[in-house]
């Protein structure tokens, strides 16, 4: 379910004032959710808790990866974009919704660090894409 190659772009800046452009050519039809990186987490944690960020912009990202994945809908082809930084997980990342892409686009990319002995990612869905991520065990 690819989006037609239109000239739709979402332009914004990350919490680090880095330009962030997402082209529709790389996204599928559905919502785009953002998850913050570790550097921004300290600054945004209280704001995210009290304001209940919706993850729909880089300025109001979800605080955790599982929050971003939980907001996805199976039929929509949603995309979860990890903002630059290191994302440390202490429990497996559960991907149980169809048609979801987990990616990091941008110059600095994102790293997912595993702080456990269990599998890092559990996929129990169809049409799941992992793109442009560094996984560290």
What's this, in brief?
By secondary structure, the chain is of the alpha/beta class. 15% of the residues lie in helices and 32% in strands. A 4-stranded parallel sheet has the order 3-4-7-10. Strands 5-8-11 form a 3-stranded parallel sheet. Strands 1-2 form a two-stranded antiparallel ribbon.
Walkthrough of the structure:
This protein has 2 helices and 11 strands, in the order βββααββββββββ. The protein has one domain. Mean pLDDT is 74; it is low at 1-27 and 39-43. It has 137 residues and is of the alpha/beta class. A hairpin with a 5-residue loop joins strand 1 and strand 2.
Topology readout:
Layout: E1 9-13, E2 19-23, E3 32-35, H1 38-51, H2 65-70, E4 79-82, E5 85-89, E6 93-95, E7 101-103, E8 110-114, E9 121-123, E10 129-131, E11 133-136
Parallel strand pairs: 3-4, 4-7, 5-8, 6-9, 7-10, 8-11
Antiparallel strand pairs: 1-2
């Amino acid at each position: 379910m690819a989006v037609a190659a239109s000239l739709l772009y979402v332009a914004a800046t990350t919490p680090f004032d880095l330009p962030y452009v997402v082209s529709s050519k790389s996204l599928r039809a559905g919502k785009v959710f953002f998850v913050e990186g570790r550097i921004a987490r300290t600054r945004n944690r209280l704001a995210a808790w009290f304001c209940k960020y919706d993850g729909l912009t880089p300025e109001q990202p979800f605080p955790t990866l599982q929050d971003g994945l939980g907001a996805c809908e199976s039929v929509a082809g949603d995309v979860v974009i990890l903002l630059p930084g290191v994302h440390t997980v202490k429990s497996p990342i559960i991907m149980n919704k169809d048609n979801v892409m987990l990616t990091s686009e941008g110059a600095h990319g994102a790293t997912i660090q595993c702080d456990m002995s269990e599998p890092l990612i559990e996929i129990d869905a169809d049409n799941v894409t992992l793109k442009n991520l560094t996984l560290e065990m």
